[in-house]
User: Fold these one by one.
Assistant:
Number 1:
Amino acid sequence: MTNIPDPADFSHVRDWVFDLDNTLYPHHINLFAQIDRNMTDFVATLLQLEPEEARKLQKQYYHEHGTTLRGLMIHHKIDPNAFLEKAHAIDYSALLPHPELGEAIKALSGRKFIFTNGTVSHAEAAARALGILDHFDDIFDIVAADYVPKPAGETYDKFTQLKRIDTAHAAMFEDLPRNLIAPRALGMKTVLLAPRNLGEFVIERWEEVREDDENIDYVTDDLATFLQTLNRG
Ligand SMILES: [Mg+2]
């Protein structure tokens, strides 16, 4: 599925924006399974629901509001910090240092950002485990986004304005096609991280990759190799 990138296509890029989960580490690590379970537990405890009912509501909010958190804030007025702390209380040991990825990010010319629907502490823990944290200039998280998650356009505007990103000279890397719609409309280069061996994963139907998606410039299943190719250009 890897597209070989044309380095000339990225030579104008001065700001490099990376999603965190399933982008800076591959989908098969499945860190999200732990976060997912924690969120189910949170909903079950909060609303005194059986796990099955809690899970249904959790997924309903995810679909309706982009994140479970957003749905819980709107419908149940929860404290977002309590939720985020609980959701991200996970074991990061599945993430191993990835020196080639670190070198490739470091070698990109310009600023590098993590732009996540998770928290700064989650992003720092994951990037630190991968050994790549020091190569990023800044992290923009769900708290900075006032809890309005990607793919909301207002959150991309907030991010690009706060960090003074000229979107005509920026590139965005993401694993969810819908999160590349806004950056593409803003003139950014877009790269989709697609999971390897897709058949092994149960993914939401709306998260499936369409080969003809016009919001996606490139698709790759190997971020380090993709960036190395750009750096050789
Ligand atoms: Mg992601």
Number 2:
Amino acid sequence: MPCKILEKERLIPGQTSKLVIDAPHIAKKAQPGNFVILRVCEKGERIPLTIADADPERGTITIVYLVMGKSTALLETLDAGDSILDLCGPLGKPTHIEKAGTVICVGGGTGIAAMHHIAKGHHKAGNHVVAVIGARSKDLLLFYDELSSFCPEVLVSTDDGSFGHKGLVTDLLRQRLETDKTVSEVVAVGPVPMMAAVAKTTEPFGVKTTVSLNSIMVDGIGMCGACRVSVGGETRFACVDGPEFDGHKVDFNELRQRLAAFKPQEKASYDHHCKCTCAGEK
Ligand SMILES: Cc1cc2nc3c(=O)[nH]c(=O)nc-3n(C[C@H](O)[C@H](O)[C@H](O)COP(=O)(O)OP(=O)(O)OC[C@H]3O[C@@H](n4cnc5c(N)ncnc54)[C@H](O)[C@@H]3O)c2cc1C
Ligand code: FES
């Protein structure tokens, strides 16, 4: 069913945008951790994007995406008032949230937006949420104000030191775990190397660690097998068994290899798209 884009904000021009979409059927069921699969046009591929926020009263969901290749570049051509051809969701298992005390939510890059919905859920459950967010520089940092509006603590790291701690989110995480023994869970959403590093950092402290896996997905309903990941030596389907898993059990090397499996095809598809759009086609 086509869904209208009500608002578009270019968070990092040409790289990352936020869309607020009219999707009452999804908004009323969406929970933290859920994602949607969308198609921009008739011949377009199906791409998964996390629900970064949902407003059941207004009937809207928010998505935030990084322009990576052909499909996200096509999505970036749409503006407020345009429609997304079809939007399927909410998909995936929602985040397991219970009253647990202090929860550290770690986000990197576009993953900060996805982590925001999970952090909000933990806050609503009465947990003390510490947000730890990182980007290459201050200009690329997303959702700082949104997280600050409900998280009692927002710790920031930037690679170049332009804001907050100069270094990585894992430096801040390690410092916190060394001094705070009340942390009951760490949740990480972001690039695969960041999630792997978070899991490695928390392991010696024995703190439960949940990661949200962005494996390649096609149908999103457990039929095609494209999203398979190895967790604790078992094959799991990220779309129906996840996307969240125990970070200490995920085979991150295999995930990295599977994500890179179609690089030449993705590049060819993007180059073709660029030529077509430059020549006036879509
Ligand atoms: C559950 C889940 C939630 C996600 N949430 C977000 C989000 O909130 N914001 C965001 O920017 N990105 C998110 N992603 C990643 C997003 O789906 C990919 O960036 C997008 O599909 C890239 O498509 P493309 O055609 O623009 O790029 P391509 O050039 O086709 O691919 C670029 C890279 O994106 C990944 N990718 C490609 N196709 C898929 C696919 N069908 N499924 C998953 N990954 C793919 C691969 O790593 C690939 O190397 C999520 C992925 C998953 C699985
Ligand atoms: S995307 Fe097809 S089984 Fe998960």
